[in-house]
Amino acid sequence: MVARETPTISVEDLLEFPLEKTVAEISNGIREFLDETGRRMMVIGVSGGLDSAVALTLLAKSAPRDRILALVMPDTRVNKPGDTVDAVELAGSLGVSYRVIPIDSVVDSYLILPGISRGERIPIGNLRARIRMSILYLYANALNGVVVGTSDRSELLIGYFTKYGDGASDFLPQASLYKTQLRRLARYLGLPEKIVSKPSSPALWENHYAEEELGMKYEDIDRVLYALFDMRMGVEEAANATGLPVSVVERVLSLHRSTRHKRQGFRYVRLSWVEDPLPEI
Description:
Shape: globular
Low-confidence stretches: none
Oligomer: single chain
Largest sheet: 4 strands, parallel
Mean pLDDT: 92
């Protein structure tokens, strides 16, 4: 029996996807979602980074501009002023209505709670994400709208998002695209290079960069995810195909498995006398 040769997986393999068809299908999906929900507005948080810039651009290509509201919600102590400028300039160039809503004082209002200090970096960082999502839903509810999320497939598969923060939305238009693919799509859409090449940064605290926190580059993460999920490879085969250490593949797989709860929606106690607590019709 001849052993099956393990294919080589490069970043270029991920970037060979149909750009025009991708935009058309996402646009159709956005319009179908609006028709299905019957809601008037789409409300989206825009940070000046890659993910939200692509999502906003796709919305603007898919629906009337007067049905889109972009909210820019910096905490001026951790968000770079240039990112806010980039977000505002993008919304303006697309002809989309926007509001700049600093959240500094909202964050501070929580810090009076007992046992909470300003030094709690991760809890307060996640708080910022949840405050932003609360504001998005406030406007969506007031305007008969829905909240559009900006997460990509890479973030979703490894759980790199705040539960009930940026992980909470009504619709995720670009959830099928890895981060590297999203960057390629951004160039195809003609987004400014200063946004396209900007390092991924959740900006939950000062100088917060995704790849530094994860300890891996997205190009490597995406190749591992592609090997595991698209090519259905095992750990060792994925390591051989990507040329990455087994430890890196295992790290990505561990992130995926340990964050399963973040992708499964509500978790609740199933009572024996209730047939279906949350039915879908």
